[in-house]
Amino acid sequence: MIVIIKDDPERASQHVAEHIIRRINAFKPTSSKPFFVLGLPTGDSPRKVYSLLVKRHQAGDICFRHVVTFNMDEYSYRSFMYEHFFSHVDSEPAHINLLNSNSLDKHTECLEYEEKIRRVGGVDLFFGGIGPNGHIAFNEPGSSLASRTRVKTLAYETLLANSRSFAGGVNSVPRLALTVGVQTIMEAREVVIIATGANKAIALQKWIEGGVSHMQPLSRLQRHPHAMLVVDKDATLDLQVRTVKYFNSIETVIPGT
Ligand code: GLP
């Protein structure tokens, strides 16, 4: 796992956006692999990344016609994705995959989502964020590290954190959500996570310096061969000085990684 430490959320977002652009532009569609498959998150942290991708698309630097997307999780994120990203780029509607949280048969909806990912050849790059309690997508602490797409009950602190987007406060936040599983994310060929702000510092410390545990579902990424975590300085507040020093030195050796 590589950790890239940037001064602030803007620079962290810039790094992630440039990385995604580089990967998509390097992808050459063939008849057997016609699409670059991109996993996408929601939340405040990726918002800036989306606005940078939109800007670069408008400048003609990146197109999304050969990109199939799969959103990580869903309970009311469809409008977020269209507002911040899909409405402003040239994604084919048929290439946009979002879990349908209104489905009457949520179990089948989740199985079919996994099947769709499999049919397009798996995810090339899963871009994600983390919750203050260390959740990834909606895999809350205690989630199986072998989990696949399914319905999850949200933790109380997630309801509190997400209540900022609901006019009716914490009681109006849906208790259940559909989410890809930890194993689904692990099977992506590359995983890029953005984590910014002091409220992510404790989760980040446990994830990077602690062991693999289902109480920190993201920690399973320690076993992923191509995982990159992009953070700002505030998110590193609970890391040991030696950890920060080491990862800063890696960035010096491999600029732009
Ligand atoms: C929600 C989403 C997660 C996201 C998290 C962090 O809970 N389900 O996928 O990573 O929020 O959001 P933010 O970046 O706003 O802190």
Structure, described:
There is one protein chain. The protein is α/β, with parallel strands linked by helices and 257 residues long. The protein has one domain: Rossmann fold (3-Layer(aba) Sandwich), CATH 3.40.50. It has helices spanning 9-26, 44-58, 78-84, 106-119, 156-162, 182-186, 201-209, 241-253, and strands spanning 2-6, 36-40, 67-71, 73-74, 96-97, 125-129, 150-153, 176-179, 190-195, 227-232. Strands 1-10-9-6-2-3-5 form a seven-stranded parallel beta sheet. It has a three-stranded antiparallel beta sheet with strand order 4-8-7. It is globular and about 45 Å long. Bound molecules: 2-amino-2-deoxy-6-O-phosphono-alpha-D-glucopyranose. 2-amino-2-deoxy-6-O-phosphono-alpha-D-glucopyranose binds at residues 41-45, 72-73, 129-131, 137-138, 158, 162.
